[in-house]
Design goal:
Helix content is 28%, strand content 27%. By secondary structure, the chain is an alpha/beta fold. Helix 2 runs parallel beside helix 5, helix 2 packs parallel to helix 10 and helix 10 runs antiparallel to helix 11 (324-348).
Length: 384
């Protein structure tokens, strides 16, 4: 689109998570008039660590915010996969993207605060829960539960796995339970029993359990995450210390010691959900992105990265295409094949014998899919 057309473009983003905040930055750099509407009265985030891949960091460099993100993260050179007992299975560097060679390990809260911190004051409107969206073709009307309204030439649905935009305009299907639980907590490096020695991600796998150790040495902390098979699809299930310890039986004794020493009140416990692929992400003036479009299981560590890539691709498409309608067609054509494959591989999971399938770009071996059943709409929100 021409620069003049972009400057006259009014964009409403629903949701101020990773994808929404990144889209706000990328789209505002085009000169568009951008507003972000977030349902929460104040921003918060689950206390756990994630890895920002080289391609994601390249986007941040393009948008002029690389140093902002890097200053609250640690650069990782490689990842390592080990058996439950600690025997090495695989060790490899992160896939490079141009000049970017590192994955940056960051606390989720620091990440969202950094993204929101680079947006102009007043761009994000808190306390705006979407009540309804009326798609009028070239323009849409948003109505919020607080009585507010907004009109926009383009609405970006970045409102997560339980997306209201998706539910009203694109798909009535709810999240799907994976048959797993995720237990996440950030602990002091001093309580990690000597397992924080560098800035590299390590994954221990065995007996249907995966343990992720993600160092946050810039905080003198470590993100300690356990993913374990469990048939309870309750969104926020109740588990005991004994339950948690059973998931790491037979693992490296240091991992068992970490689990034994946890304060259960600080552990975030969630059943793990994703969504089935959505056939169409857009109308002529409304588009889905991030978890709203393609929420995926966390086995690939690609949820936040995919949302950032979506934001960049949407901005690229608007700059390249002749109209909003054409841009949304281009955006879906660019991103949906990638995220469809990530969703598929993430559902497939992996074991000691399937480590070559852990990361995208490697063709997975045929595997009998796990039994999966749709779940009713969960009662409370989650950040994937």
């Amino acid at each position: 689109m021409k620069a003049e057309d972009l400057k006259n473009l009014k964009i409403a983003i629903v949701g101020a998570g990773y994808g929404g905040a990144a889209a706000a930055k990328a789209l505002s750099l085009l000169g568009a008039d951008v507003k972000v509407y977030e349902q929460a009265p104040q921003m918060g985030e689950v206390g756990a660590g994630i890895g920002l891949r080289p391609a994601t960091m390249a986007r941040f460099r393009q948008w002029g915010i690389f140093d902002t993100i890097a200053s609250v993260s640690s650069a990782s050179d490689y990842f390592e996969i080990l058996t439950a007992a600690g025997d090495p299975i695989m060790k490899d560097t992160w896939p490079e993207f141009g000049e970017e060679k590192h994955t940056y390990l960051i606390h989720r809260r620091d990440f969202i605060e950094a993204l929101l911190g680079v947006l102009p004051e007043g761009m994000v409107q808190l306390g705006h829960r979407l009540e309804s969206i009326e798609d009028k073709g070239g323009r849409s009307l948003l109505v919020f539960s607080n009585g507010g309204t907004a009109e926009a030439d383009l609405v970006v649905g970045a409102d997560g796995i339980k997306s209201s935009v998706r539910g009203q305009l694109f798909s009535a299907k709810g999240p799907v339970f994976s048959g797993e639980h995720a237990y996440r907590v950030v602990i002091s490096a001093d309580d990690a029993h000597g397992m924080v020695t560098d800035d590299n991600l390590r994954m221990y796998i065995g007996k249907g359990t995966k343990v992720y150790l993600l160092p946050l040495r810039h905080r003198n902390q470590m993100s300690f995450d356990i993913t374990a098979l469990n048939p309870d699809g309750t969104w926020a299930p109740a588990i005991t210390k004994e339950d948690l310890l059973k998931t790491v039986e037979g693992f490296d004794e240091r991992i068992v010691d970490i689990a034994r020493g946890l304060d259960m009140d600080s552990v975030n416990v969630r059943a793990v959900y994703d969504i089935d692929p959505v056939d169409t992400w857009h109308t002529d003036s409304v588009v889905l992105m991030g978890d709203a479009a393609h929420s995926m299981l966390h086995h690939q560590g690609q949820g936040a990265n995919s949302a950032i890539e979506d934001a960049g691709a949407l901005a690229d498409a608007l700059a390249e295409a002749g109209s909003v309608k054409e841009a949304l067609v281009l955006f879906q054509a660019t991103r949906k094949p990638v995220t469809d494959e990530l969703q598929r591989i993430s559902r497939q999971g992996w074991s000691e014998e399937e480590v070559n399938d852990v990361f995208p770009g490697q063709k997975p071996k045929p595997q009998k899919p796990a039994s999966r059943k749709p779940a009713s709409q969960p009662a409370e929100p989650v950040k994937a």
